[in-house]
Design goal:
With 210 residues, the chain is α/β, with parallel strands linked by helices. Helices cover 47% and strands 12% of the residues. Helix 3 packs antiparallel against helix 4. The chain is globular and about 45 Å long. The two termini are 27 Å apart.
């Protein structure tokens, strides 16, 4: 049976992950998987610094993403575009949780992670801290207004460490400082790079010609 192609997009808040995911999903006629941040009732309190909300918030995201990436929900011989990478769970948990909270989180994650669909390719988007912070402020989500450039810098460092020796699947790094991810031409260029990367896979990508 052919395996599904799962393309996961990683990067800072405000870098353009969802914008690119929507573009690629259309180009590949793919299923779109979006992070359920708007359903997390603990997130506003977590981002405002409430330590008591951090563990339930991170467990909410862990279970939400586990459900979305469960092989039972990822059909064979199909393409999926996801606007997050599952590994971000651990990055955020390490940044937000106390040692005691992280031990609880780690135990739950260790039971879940081995059973989830592994991406066939990851797109790692980067941009300046200033640009991402400006976008966060301008889009006006109230719960994000407490995010600081310093916090984004720490998050950027964690992502860089994650991908420094990445060997799980294909990795496409994109510096977005000179890219317009809203442009169809940009999305098409990225799509063709993905096709080239996955040309020897058992389930190669193909563009929607309609």
């Amino acid at each position: 049976m052919s395996q599904p192609s799962l393309i996961a997009i990683a990067g800072l808040i405000g870098v353009g992950k969802t914008t690119l995911a929507q573009q690629l999903a259309q180009l590949f006629s793919a299923h779109l998987i979006l992070e359920e941040y708007d359903k997390n009732p603990f997130l506003p309190r977590q981002l405002s610094g409430d330590s008591a909300a951090a563990l339930p918030s991170e467990l909410f995201f862990l279970l939400s993403r586990a459900r979305q990436l469960d092989p039972a929900n990822i059909g064979p011989a199909q393409t999926y575009i996801c606007d997050y990478i599952f590994a971000k769970n651990r990055i955020y948990a390490q940044m937000f949780l106390s040692d005691h909270q992280f031990c609880i989180y780690d135990e739950v994650e260790s039971l879940i992670a081995p059973h989830l669909t592994t991406p066939s390719a990851v797109i790692y988007l980067t941009n300046s801290i200033e640009t991402c912070h400006s976008r966060i402020l301008s889009r006006g989500r109230e719960f994000e207004q407490t995010i600081t450039p310093d916090w984004l810098s720490r998050l950027s460092g964690a992502y860089d460490s994650l991908f420094q020796d990445w060997s799980i699947c294909h990795l496409l790094r994109l510096d977005c400082r000179s890219l317009d991810l809203r442009s169809p031409e940009t999305a098409q260029s990225i799509a063709r790079q993905l096709i080239h990367m996955e040309s020897n896979s058992s389930q190669p990508l193909s563009l929607n010609d309609s």
